[in-house]
Amino acid sequence: MESFYVIGAVTLFVIIIVLKGIKQVPQGQAVIIERLGKYVKTLDSGINFIIPFLDKKRYVKHLNYKPEKISDYNVDLREQVYDIPSQSVITRDNISLTVDTLIFYQIVEPHKACYEISDLIMGIRELSKTTMRNIFGEMDLDVSLSSRDTANQKLRGILDEATDKWGVKILRVEIQDIIPPTDLKEDMERQMKAERTRRQEVTIAEGKKQAAILEAEGIKQSLILNAQGESESRIMKADAYKMEKILLAEGESEAIRLVQLAKAVGLDAVRKVYSEGKGADNLLMMEVLRSQNEIAKDLANGSSHKIFLPTEVAGLFGSIGGIQELLATRDAFRKADQTESKA
Fold it and tell me: How crowded is the C-beta side of 93, counted as CA atoms within 13 Å?
């Protein structure tokens, strides 16, 4: 019976030892283990085993920015946002400014954050203040107000390099606000108002200038186009007058040619008649020629499309066919007589 109690006691002691050696760490946290006062290892998230009574967890409440949300023996490995209290800095031109800054950092090596610095949060705060004074002390007021990104990059680089020994990574630095003194702020507002007024006046003047230039260009183009139009109009009128004269001259030339041609034809007919015919035939052809000349003149003048012949001339034209037939009969009898005489 006594052996049963001994075995039970030993078993219970072993169970207690095993349970003491099992440590569970939440996600995003870490636990620093010391053995007999010396750092041994860092427990990551999940189930871990330690040696009971020899290993113990390190108290690390001072490493956490908000320790009330996490155990005093666990290190928060998530990204932390540290709002640096507003501080006064002096620019290179001796202007006092109030700067408000946010720092985003993360503990990447918990044992260094625990053993390399006594107070991590205070170290980050004071280091950021001194670094910020140095950065703004190298810049003028105008540069300080307009170069926040440059100041952020410089501040992040310096802080990240300095905190690397502490096992901390500075992710971002954001300057929330830069507040100048009240009197300087009023002066800057008046200056900005004057600058806006000046820009407005310059814009209006530029607009009037451009409008005047465009109006002058429009007038110039209008005058040029009007002059070109008048020049082309005169050229076209001159060309039309020239063509009119040419056509009139050609018409007159053609009319004269036709008249002369008609006269030539008439003279040829007269010569033929005189050479072949008698007196009556000559008289007849003279009258025909005279009528032909009158018709040719009317045609050449182009005054009328209708030609009215005298009555005697019209009758003369009507008897031309009969006279020609008589002349042809006469010529036939003459040829017959000549043939009989030869026979």
Answer: 9
In angstroms, the Cα distances linking 332 to 47, 270, 343 are 158, 22, 17
Q: In terms of DSSP bridges, do strands 29-35 and 74-76 run parallel, antiparallel, or are they unpaired?
A: antiparallel
Domain boundary among 161, 180, 199: 180
Q: Could you list the beta-strand ranges (E) of the chain.
A: 22-25, 29-35, 38-43, 46-49, 55-57, 74-76, 80-90, 96-107, 168-179
C-alpha to C-alpha distance for 46 and 27, rounded to whole angstroms: 7
Give every CB contact of residue 140 below 8 A, 6+ residues apart in sequence. Answer: 91, 92, 93
Q: What is the DSSP letter of 66?
A: S
Q: What residues contact 4, with CB distance under 8 A and at least 6 apart?
A: none
**Whole-angstrom distance, CA of residue 208 vs CA of residue 32:** 76
* 105 and 19 in a common domain: no
Running DSSP on this structure, what letter comes out for residue 56? Answer: E
Domain count, the chain: 3
Within a domain: 233: no
Domain membership flag for residue 241:
no
> Quick one: pLDDT band at residue 335, thresholds 50, 70, 90?
low
- pLDDT tens, residue by residue, 261-312: 766 766 666 566 556 655 555 555 555 556 655 655 555 555 544 444 444 4
Looking at the whole model, is its pTM more than 0.85? no
